Amino acid sequence: MDESPTDLNASSLAYAEDLYQAYLTDPGAVPEAWRQAFERLGGAAAGPGSRAGRGPSFRRGTLFDPPGTASAAPMPSGGGTSDAELHQRLDRLVRNFRVRGHRVADLNPLGGPTIDVPELELGYYRITDADLGRAVLDTTFPDAKTVGDVYEALRATYTRSIGAQFMHIDSLDVRRWLQARMERTRNRLELSRATQLRILTKLSDAVIFEEFVQKKFVGAKSFSLEGSESLIPLLELALEKAGEQGVREVVLGMAHRGRLNVLANIMGKHPRTIFREFEDKDPEMHRGRGDVKYHLGYSNDWTTQAGHRLHLSLAFNPSHLEFVNAVAMGRVRAKQDRVGDVERTQGLGILIHGDAAFIGEGIVQETLNMSELPGYRVGGILHVIVNNQIGFTTGPEQGRSTTYASDVAKMLQSPVFHVNGEDPEAVAQVMEVAMDFRRTFQRDVVIDMYAYRRFGHNEGDEPAFTQPAMYADIRRRPNVREGYLERLLTLGEVTRDEADAIAEARREQLEQELSVARGDDFRPTYSAFEGLWKPYVGGPDADVPDAATAIEPSKAARLLRALGTVPEGFTPNPKLTRFLKGRREMASGDRDLDWSAGEALAFGSLVAEGVRVRLSGQDSERGTFSHRHSVLHDAETGARLPLFDAVAQGGGVFDVHNSPLSENGVLGFEYGYSLDWPDGLVLWEAQFGDFVNTAQVIIDQFIASGEDKWRRLSGLVLLLPHGFEGAGPEHSSARLERFLQMGAEDNLQVVVPSTPAQMFHLLRRQVRRPWRKPLVVFTPKSLLRHPKALSPLAAFTDGAFQTVLPDDTVDPDGVRKVLLCSGKVYYDLLAAREEQARDDVALVRVEQLYPLRQADVDAAIERYPAAAAVTWVQEEPENMGALRYLRVTWGDRVAGRPFAGVSRPASASPATGSASSHRIEQAELLRAALGERVPEEVVA
């Protein structure tokens, strides 16, 4: 960089600071123009080797002005520092405390090495003891009249038990708001005696609960909160504040550390139920299902001190840390949408993190990135990092490359408040500021509460194996309640008798709850299907009849016309003119419906019936393969036109969003949304089905197993483009085999529809049938425009989804071979059969692979002679697709006939990367299936 003082801008301040330090050491080491500028600001340098010097203020009127235009500050007659120059130095000191004060704050209850930050020392700015008594002109600190007052105020605000990071925020207004909130109070709340007693009470509840569990259930895993008990009063104060701010719904997400304590002392779960879960006396209730007690969720109502009523929901969570974040966010958004809360003020998400997980898990970055996006914002999440300063056995020096566990959050325009967890009143202060910041600016905010973990990762682990010094210190430490009680006793705010009474009452209550839990007549009750979920069921597929899904012909025609028409004055892209015209022709019955129209008719008919349809995914507004065009853009102005708005009625909404380039975060969000919107159609779409494995944790731990583990249903739909078309190993397979492997107890629906009408009825069935199970749809790519993948309008106004499509185009008596298949390969087989003029081969499509309705399969096969061979044909390699699943299900016979399979050979990779090789392989596959030569041009 070779800038002169006249070139200086805001991004060059660091360069100017470095030059100034060089000038202080040796004036001849800096360019002439800079030396003259520095001399105007404060005279000669202090001399070689001097660290301190006169600090320039890099503002207009000083270095920003061209040489010769800035007025040098008058020097006092004695040769000392002028008032103007002193204020310039003081300005720099103030700014650096705001920027760097957190580095020397007293955050760690276990202590730690002293950090040298010279720019926070008075000598760095050549401010002497003699200057401390000099008056200051104005300041944001009340009652700060002198330089010394300002310095002490800075230390109190930024270096006591709270360290604030906020100067990375671009907005000057936001920074000033935060400065004023912290500096006018020295970052300390003046708490009433009642509030101090509430904090003491909640600390007592937290500490005594943990002590009780450790004593009564020796050696049992509880993932104790001990060492971090200030979390409990923090959450209580947050809920009180939320009530004041008009919040009505609160969704909490957290991992297992401290979860039982939160369940008992915040969520209001009866300790008797928790203790019964420790006793594990009801094995018959949980055979083959259920989850460990520290993964369970809960919901309850909370009434604040001021009488505000909140509904609390603690999301169920697996051991996969942080993945619940996105789920909880989706639940908050759904709750807001349900009450029309477009301002995002009536729902609050609270996410409780571990320090190692927050910096280590990529899902954290994904969900932080979603926080300000229109399709996913919820008005700000309150993040609380319970910073144990260790992850299992891994310390920060091995677990992160950043200064703080929270540093990933600085990607947002939001503050991070570090706080010493053994100072409950400092915790109360940061919670107050954080909640007000969130409400004012509707952004995420982070509290990084430094604490420790009294035991190992679990109660049976020995942490001293790997952190002997740390745990020697921890074992000597009293709990946080004792420390806070001593403070209150010193202040005279509480008596020892009052404190003992609080503790004794809690112990007695827990003893009573344990007595009930151990009684033979006590059985825990768990409620799952209440409120919005009352009309819906899970369980076996066979227990719930299918629903009517066809619509009236006049309605279908009206919807298609509306979805093919744009308002006057709107100029669509010329290439879409034919697309829209085709929709109108389909409405009049002049053309069969393609896939785009069939899907649009499903969405449009539901929206017209008052249903909320929410679809998100990468490029979902247009569709990866340019088939959907749910939102048009004016070719001249760029104005957006959501097509489905024209058909919405009765509260129906088509809510479509292009997602960020994220699978885990977005799929988790949509799963969470589906938990609080059972009466809608909630869909997530992969750009290509191959990328769904990026979200495997959400699929395995939530979608596939949520009902079995937690008795929680979801009607979420996954749209996974799938098909072998020569596009390579990462653009061919959505891994059908993995979903079939996970299928058990009718937990999923796995469907490969092959016609637009089938897709239409499938999507409508998902809403109209009260059976709520996740639906995994393997959607087409080339079939979107295949000339034979069409359905007449009558197929939408009559009929229903068919799990198996028999072949009505051949004479059953003449069939010698029955080929079962799903998806695109059907059309390849059809073309090959036509090429060979074969009438002895029936092509039967198994559209729903799980739950497999065997009666439908048998009925389709039994139409043909008993001697007809039955073969499953798939494009996937033998170790993928449905073949092995069907072999396990059927063995070597189906419907009383021998069963075989045709596929590509088993392979480590789904597909070849060569389009030419693909065509050769496909021709061989069809030849093996049909038994005759198939020309390659058939599959070109």
What does this structure look like?
By secondary structure, this protein is an alpha/beta fold. It contains 30 helices and 23 strands. It has an 8-stranded mixed beta sheet with strand order 1-7-8-6-5-2-4-3, with helices on both faces. It has a 7-stranded mixed beta sheet with strand order 12-9-13-14-16-15-20. A 6-stranded mixed beta sheet has the order 17-19-18-21-23-22, sandwiched between helices. Strand 15, helix 25 and strand 16 form a beta-alpha-beta unit. Helix 6 packs antiparallel against helix 16, helix 10 packs across helix 21 and helix 21 runs parallel beside helix 22. It is globular and about 110 Å long. It starts with 12 loop residues before the first helix and ends in a 10-residue tail after the last helix. About 4% of the residues have low confidence.
